[in-house]
Amino acid sequence: xxxxxxxxSNKVTEKGKDVELRCDPISGHTALYWYRQSLGQGxxxxxxxxxxxAPDKSGLPSDRFSAERTGGSVSTLTIQRTxxxxxxxxxxxxxxxxxxxxxxxFGSGTQLSVx
Amino acid sequence: AQTVTQxxxxxxxxxxxxxxxxxxxxxxxxNYYLFWYKQPPSRQMILVIRQEAYKQQNATENxxxxxxxxxxxxxSLKISDSQLGDTAMYFCAFRMDSNYQLxxxxxxxxxIKP
Lengths: 115, 114
Fold this sequence. Notes:
heterodimer; A: 50% strand; B: mainly beta; 4-stranded antiparallel sheet; globular
């Protein structure tokens, strides 16, 4: 595609439910990043993929969070048993390679609201 | 640990004026990169300008320029001839040369008034 695509754009869920957030990076981009942006704050790193591998999962806040990437393309971030503190905008970004990570191309994010 | 501080939560100026957004950072590294990103209401982060720490010359992109003071660890963004479309959140970010992770400031909300 022309840009990074994220779906859904908005998600409202009940506490305790599982949610899946999807990211379609720019075709050919090998590096993919997930960030979380809470209201009034900067971006918090969650996880990084190089191809299908995740060499750095250090930012995942708890074991309720997991992510995978298949075919070196689409990535899914899963949050199990959602809590109210999980409410935030989840942003995905891709770049041609790790060495050029500063040229990050971002999606428009998923606004997650946990009631 | 590296940190990035943006001390101005919100700024407001008239269209066509010049505005400067502040950013300071803390690091013991000598090689690194600094960035300014813009986040409009669409939520999509857009790279505005970047600066390599080893370059003394301040980066410039059209109406956007930076004042990079390495000794003071300061990296301010100047927007000249501001336009309504410049209204957005602006984030300062830092990356070490040896690490791919970006460290982000909390952001400054910039409002350009007609």
